[in-house]
């Protein structure tokens, strides 16, 4: 049986797509096993709050997204409407996960700035704009099913790589603002205490902010630098690396702060500035 050049290209892209998501599932599982004790200690000993609900959503939704995308890529499907519905579901799950993960960084910045309500409103409004932009881009992308007649199963979404970079440019700017606000607090703390700069950077969770900013940078540049796979990468990156890695960064930061809060004495609690200090009701987040 003869295959067209387009069939060969599609089959190769779908194969890479499956490999990438399998590797992402492996990475998520590895991270989960490594943090199993710390995570279940937090889940069992902390009481139920809104922050804990955010944690559960941000932590476990990416696994369902990975599973759904593997299903889309590997199961034959000739119905374009079904493809579109399944794609929309995974997009909604991705948006939910990204929003919940970013909320941890927003709350962390909010606490670092002494629970400034105006700053919180501005940050949440900016996050809302980013989420809405991703909705507009994600739900206007075209979806193309590949039938079993061409022996290429699954659903594939085509979209312009530049338009798909727009939400990540906005997210990059948003994360740049968050890390800038955090650095301002780092400098203020460093000047007032004259302590080691590295220790202050660690206490203010700057590593997690920096990794999130680097991730958004990769999402912007990768489709441009790898033009032969630009359409394919513009689909994998937002629902692959962005969702999974951002989730791991946000939830690991929260677990780290929660455990530090549990083991710190009175003076150390102020130094680590746990998100459980946001209000008396959230003291045992």
Describe the protein in words.
This protein has helices at residues 5-34, 36-45, 50-74, 80-112, 117-140, 161-193, 197-203, 206-225, 230-263, 266-272; strands at 142-145, 155-158. A two-stranded antiparallel sheet has the order 1-2. The chain is mainly alpha-helical. Helix content is 78%, strand content 3%. It is built from ten helices and two strands, in the order H-H-H-H-H-E-E-H-H-H-H-H.
Could you write a compact summary of the structure shown?
With 285 residues, this protein is mostly helical. Helix content is 78%, strand content 3%.
Key features?
mainly alpha; single chain; two-stranded antiparallel sheet; 285 residues
- Number of strand segments: 2
Give me the Rg, rounded: 21 Å
Flag low-confidence runs.
Answer: 145-150, 265-274, 276-285
Distance between the termini: 61 Å
* Main sheet characteristics: 2 strands, antiparallel
Present the secondary structure layout.
Blueprint: H1 5-34, H2 36-45, H3 50-74, H4 80-112, H5 117-140, E1 142-145, E2 155-158, H6 161-193, H7 197-203, H8 206-225, H9 230-263, H10 266-272
Antiparallel strand pairs: 1-2
């Amino acid at each position: 049986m003869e295959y067209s050049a387009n069939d060969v290209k599609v089959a190769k892209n779908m194969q890479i797509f499956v490999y990438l998501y399998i590797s992402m599932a492996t990475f998520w599982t590895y991270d989960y096993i490594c943090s199993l004790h710390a995570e279940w200690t937090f889940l069992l000993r902390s009481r139920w709050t809104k922050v804990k609900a955010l944690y559960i959503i941000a932590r476990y939704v990416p696994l369902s997204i990975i599973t759904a995308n593997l299903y889309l890529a590997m199961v034959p499907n000739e119905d374009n409407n079904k493809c579109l519905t399944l794609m929309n579901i995974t997009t909604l799950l991705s948006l939910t996960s990204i929003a919940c993960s970013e909320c941890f960084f927003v709350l962390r910045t909010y606490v670092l700035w002494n629970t400034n309500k105006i700053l919180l409103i501005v940050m949440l409004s900016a996050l809302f704009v980013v989420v809405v932009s991703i909705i507009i881009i994600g739900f206007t992308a075209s979806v193309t099913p590949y039938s079993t007649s061409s022996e290429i199963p699954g659903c594939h979404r085509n979209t312009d790589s530049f338009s798909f970079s727009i939400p990540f440019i906005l997210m990059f700017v948003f994360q740049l603002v968050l890390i800038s606000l955090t650095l301002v607090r780092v400098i203020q703390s460093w000047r007032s205490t004259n302590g080691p700069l590295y220790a202050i950077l660690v206490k203010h969770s700057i590593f997690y902010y920096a990794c999130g900013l680097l991730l958004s940078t990769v999402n912007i540049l990768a489709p441009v630098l790898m033009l032969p796979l630009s359409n394919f990468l513009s689909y994998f990156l937002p629902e692959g690396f962005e969702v999974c890695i951002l989730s791991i960064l946000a939830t690991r930061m929260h677990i780290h702060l929660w455990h530090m809060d549990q083991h710190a004495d009175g003076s150390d609690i102020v130094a680590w500035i746990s998100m459980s200090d946001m209000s008396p009701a959230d003291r045992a987040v």
